[in-house]
Design a protein that fits this description.
Blueprint (H helix, E strand, L loop, with lengths): L1 H23 L4 H17 L6 H17 L32 H16 L5 H22 L2 H22 L51 H4 L16 H14 L3 H9 L9 H17 L3 H29 L4 H8 L19 H17 L2 E6 L18 E5 H14 L5 H19 L15
Antiparallel strand pairs: 1-2
């Protein structure tokens, strides 16, 4: 009889020990911020009618909400209220009252995530509520003061509600309802974009043709001039022709590492969390590696969010200004009628590269925060099944600097045959401008000679 009870007793002791360990585990700011970041990516991936454009916008507001919900708990940082394009005053914490800033951030993230992805499933909304409740219960027990808990929750929601109301006026509100505008008509011309025969989308209409008209987060980004595009010329000695013959010749000699890069950074919205989501994931890897404090975590996501959001609006402004063709159109008409790109064409014009633009913007803001050089391994797509059509596996990719990541993101589109080098180089240059403008915001308060914060 004793022998029969022993295994049950051991099981009960083990379960009790696990419960104790769970209670003893200290939940850090990194745990909370990265948990919300990863859930955001999962919602991004698993919400219908999503797109890189809409995802970039969502991340902009989600990151800003994270920052504004905690910034008043850190005297070294400034709120961006009144500094961003059209953003007026935000709610202030009550003077002399105590707040738990992890609770405010937790409440704000739950509120803004459901607002940005209003169209997500009820199951996903339950997951958002579950994560919010998980952290709320933990921190409520830790501080054991219901007034502080309630005050903190209310403040986080108030920040998120104000920011979400501001978001509704930017031109991209519920943009997923009209991804492909059938009313959009553009007369064709030599060098104009054409719906691809081999594409990522079944639609013959381009994605979000008016996205470039949306309000950007930064006025400095809104007023950037449209970059120059090479003049259309089919002459074999022209610079324009040279751009496309480069793509064609490269497609013939792709190495396996180049093919792997082309697939790794593809981030088709139907399969992954989109290109801006990939940048959000990279920020998460950096936070887990460096282990910064709460406000630093929040400011990282805020900067990355602002960078990708403005990068996509800026890029789409140029794309629909020029309405430029993809390499597939030029090559099939002027070089090889039977040519197909290694990676299928996305459903929108070419110049400049959205991947390059947002990649450079994010590299610029992360380098400003953490220094240019960093050893990091991107495992975003580890575990995905092999692409049997192309014979390529998804292998983790290691880097030693943020700029190395940006360059590979850009080059991956050249390897895929969907962008010329001009698209990439101009995209990188524009992304740097956008990232520098984000860095130039008044994030931190200056220290005076005595070392105190002014």
């Amino acid at each position: 009889m004793k022998n029969k009870k022993t295994p049950i007793l051991i099981l009960l002791i083990s379960l009790s020990a696990c419960a104790v360990l769970r209670e003893q585990k200290v939940v850090t700011p990194q745990d909370v911020t990265t948990s919300w970041a990863l859930l955001t990516l999962d919602i991004t991936k698993n919400t219908p009618s999503n797109s890189p454009t809409y995802a970039s916008r969502a991340l902009g507001y989600i990151g800003l909400t994270m920052y504004e919900s905690v910034v008043h708990g850190d005297p070294a940082y400034n709120s961006l209220a009144g500094e961003l394009n059209g953003l007026g005053e935000l709610p202030l914490p009550q003077a002399g009252k105590t707040y738990d800033w992890l609770i405010t951030m937790n409440a704000g993230q739950a509120f803004i995530l459901k607002k940005m992805y209003h169209q997500t499933s009820d199951q996903n909304k339950i997951r958002i509520d579950s994560l919010e409740n998980h952290f709320l219960e933990y921190f409520s027990e830790t501080i054991n003061d219901q007034e502080i808990v309630n005050r903190s929750v209310e403040y986080g929601k108030a920040i998120a509600e104000k920011i979400s109301s501001w978001a509704e006026t930017d031109g991209g509100h519920r943009g997923y309802l009209n991804n492909f505008d059938k009313a959009f008509i553009k007369q064709s011309f030599p060098g104009s974009w054409e719906p691809p025969l081999y594409g990522q989308s079944f639609s013959h209409y381009p994605l979000h043709p008016h996205w470039g008209e949306n309000r950007m987060f930064l006025l400095a980004n809104q007023t950037l001039p449209v970059p120059l595009l090479l003049k259309y010329d089919t002459s074999r000695i022209s610079a324009y022709y040279h751009e496309y013959i480069q793509v064609y010749e490269k497609s013939k000699v792709l190495s396996m590492p180049e093919k792997e890069a082309a697939l790794w950074w593809g981030d088709d919205p139907g399969e992954t969390f989109t290109p801006p989501g990939h940048s959000w994931y990279l920020a998460t890897l950096v936070i887990k590696k460096v282990n910064p404090g709460l406000t630093e975590c929040a400011s990282t996501y805020a900067r990355v969010g602002l960078a990708v959001a403005d990068a996509f609006i800026n890029c789409w402004k140029s794309k629909y200004h020029y309405y430029s063709e993809r390499p597939s159109s030029f090559i099939s008409k002027n070089i090889d009628t039977r040519w197909e790109s290694f990676w299928p064409d996305p459903p929108f014009p070419s110049f400049p590269s959205g991947h390059a633009t947002q990649g450079a913007a994010v590299a610029t803001v992360l380098a400003d925060l953490y220094g240019q050089n960093i050893e990091i391994t991107d495992d975003a797509h580890t575990g995905r099944p092999k692409d049997e059509l192309r014979g390529v596996e998804f292998k983790p990719r290691s880097f030693s600097s943020f700029w190395q990541i940006a360059e590979e993101i850009a080059n991956s589109r050249f390897y895929g045959g969907i962008h010329s080098q001009q698209d990439n180089l101009v995209g990188l240059a524009e992304g740097i401008k956008i990232g520098k403008n984000v860095n130039a915001l008044n994030w931190r308060r200056e220290k005076n000679y005595a070392g105190t914060i002014e």
